[in-house]
Design a protein that fits this description.
Length: 149
Amino acid sequence: MQRLLLILCVSLALTSFTGVNDTKGDDVIGTWLTGKKTAHVEIFKTGKYFYGKIVWMEKPNDDAGNLRLDKNNPDENLKSKSLMNLLILKGFEYQDEHEWADGTIYDPEEGKTYSCKMWFEKGNTDVLKMRGFVGISLLGRTDTWTRIK
């Protein structure tokens, strides 16, 4: 019996250290409508970090009918990349109390990347607040995203 208890304890300890079954913060995973209602962003998890990419745009093509490109990107090599499937949320880590922090958000309209944190508004898992900022979060802007069901 003691041996079984020891094996169980070791298994639980290894599971918690390796991140197996680590689902903390996974309730943010899904597809979200941005505040301007012009794009859907799919949030997903890789390892312990959360990312988001554009999966739908109200206007995916420019006036000439071509796919919209990341033309405002400061990196010349990325200006020819399509905005569709562009990774705009990177490296978010679940903190606690439905808050994710230490990530970045890229704004393709400005071609700028900001520090960012996100959280559910009053615990409502269908309303996500995104706060992009420079330096400290007081110097930023908050956007409200809604879950696509």
